[in-house]
Amino acid sequence: MKKLIECVPNFSEGKDMGVINNITREIETVEGVKLLDVDPGQATNRTVVTFVGSPDEVVEAAFRAVKRAAELIDMRKHKGAHPRMGATDVCPLVPVANISMEEVVEYAHKLAKRIGDELGISVYCYENAALKPERRNLANCRKGEYEAMADKLKQPEWKPDFGPASLNERSGVTAVGARDFLVAYNINLNTTSARRANAIAFDVREKGRVKRKGHPLTGKIVKDEKGDQVYIPGTLKEVKAIGWFIEEYGIAQISMNLTNISITPVHVAFDEVCAKAANRGIRVTGSELVGLVPLKAMLDAGKYFLKKQQRSLGVSGDELIKIAVKSMGLDELKPFDPKEKIIEYMIAGDEGKKLVDMSVSGFADETASESPAPGGGSVSAYVGALGVSLGTMVANLSSHKRGWDERWEEFSKWAEKGQAIKNELLYLVDEDTRAFNRIMAAFGMPKKSEKDKKARHQAIQDATKYAIQIPFRIMQKAYESMDVMEAMVEKGNPASITDAGVGALCARTAVIGAFMNVKINAEGLEDKEFYEELYREGQEIEADARKKEEEIIRMVENTMNT
């Protein structure tokens, strides 16, 4: 599945829109990257930019933006309310989908090295990308700001991680980091009291509230041996919160920054505020997400609330999002449109027309047209997706069959497995066509010079190899899906076993059809060792799929005859 990362560079210019637009245009020149937000600040003289895309493209776009900022912003003349040390002050990378923090750190180091080597700008790496413990905190790296950097860079302990150990006076110093996704999240209360909202905020935020002797509100503040105030920690880690009154809505809210949603997800924050508000005689009426949120955050929330209801978690992504929206009241103040609030959906429109978004008749018409794509690989993936969808349906029906309440979790796990396989097979429907188009593009490359011919030949070989790997993946996932159908015939709702049987027939067809594409796509491939290994494994998968399909159908028929 596609890897996505977000980049949120802060540029030291917030007044001149000509300069800002010049920088953001550099980002938009990179294909595969979507500019999501540009937020200039007059007083801070600083602009926060947000864009997202696949990792390599995001790194390229970030580099181009940093380079352009270095050309246009002169730090010797910069004044602003916000702490800063460079034309591009900070440039954090953030994991969004299908990528680990460890991988994002590698991309951050790659970007930092390019900035240092190619632009001659000193770079500190911070947060998860920090190469030294004391540099993890951005404030330490930026201490002294631009004016102190010339001396700071000369100190051995503050030698930059990348780039020169002397100040680039025009561009200053840049901090490149890797951090978790930050979600701005507000929770609505049935009160107008900002003070009461603040009390709830202090209950939950990690920092908590000031410790007092005697009365919790008026007692003497407790201080430590250094004279610093002592705090009673709140219940939620990686959460900042404050209570306020919103005149526009006529209600008080808890305004929260969830700085690491892998530690405190949105749904956990919501439920905890509900509990603390109830303790104070206040009710949560809904909530709102400010800005964008990763798809996973919404899917996890939907599953969390379904689990509380003891309902199957193996439902579609759209259904999980709907459950999350209704459970947290995300549509109380204004409509919640997933296409405008979820990052992955925001950028999906840039990918062009997708086969899986067509109607059933539209897909059939497109397949029947004179175009060679979609072909057998895409259809095999689609048939496989339909097959596992039937198995998943049986699992979901079984999870809430009357009298089987204690087994809901057992069937929910099978339904989740089925949904995951279905989603990947649907992805492979379009990926098989993209693989075909990649081959066509390689054949269309120029071949005038010897260098052109070598590049074209290599591109054809790489595209051919990829066009073999995709149907092979279809084989693997379709065969894996047969476990779901087999389990549902053995354990599922007896009234639906024929549906599971049809699913097994579809899965076997998908395996055999995809294997045909593996073999036909191998024509012209020079890496025979690569193909022979896949071919041997493909033969085993096909034979196993045929055998398993026969066993499942025999079980279905035996059950119907008893």
Q: What are the key terms here?
A:
562 residues, alpha+beta, Formiminotransferase-cyclodeaminase, Chain B, domain 1, Alpha-Beta Plaits, Four Helix Bundle (Hemerythrin (Met), subunit A), 3 domains, seven-stranded mixed sheet, four-stranded antiparallel sheet, 15% strand, flat
Tell me what you see in this structure.
This protein has 562 residues and is of the alpha+beta class. It has three domains: 4-178, Formiminotransferase, N-terminal subdomain (Formiminotransferase-cyclodeaminase, Chain B, domain 1); 183-346, Alpha-Beta Plaits (2-Layer Sandwich), CATH 3.30.70; 353-560, Formiminotetrahydrofolate cyclodeaminase monomer, up-and-down helical bundle (Four Helix Bundle (Hemerythrin (Met), subunit A)). The chain is 52% helix and 15% strand. The protein is built from 17 helices and 15 strands. α2 packs parallel to α3 (101-119). The longest helix is centred in the last third of the chain and has 42 residues, at 450-491.
As for the number of domains, it is 3
Number of DSSP-assigned strands: 15
* Overall pLDDT score: 94
CATH class of the largest domain: Mainly Alpha
Q: Could you tell me the strand content as a percent range?
A: 5-15%
- The name of the CATH topology of the largest domain is Four Helix Bundle (Hemerythrin (Met), subunit A)
Q: Could you say which overall geometry the principal axes of the C-alpha atoms support? A: flat
What is the overall number of helices? 17
Named at the architecture level, the CATH assignment of the largest domain is Up-down Bundle
CATH superfamily annotation of the largest domain: Formiminotetrahydrofolate cyclodeaminase monomer, up-and-down helical bundle
Seen as an oligomer or otherwise, the chain set is single chain
Radius of gyration of CA atoms, rounded to a whole number: 28 Å
Q: Let me know the largest β-sheet.
A: 7 strands, mixed
Structural class: alpha+beta
End-to-end separation in angstroms reads: 44 Å
Helix content: 40-55%
- Name the poorly predicted regions: none
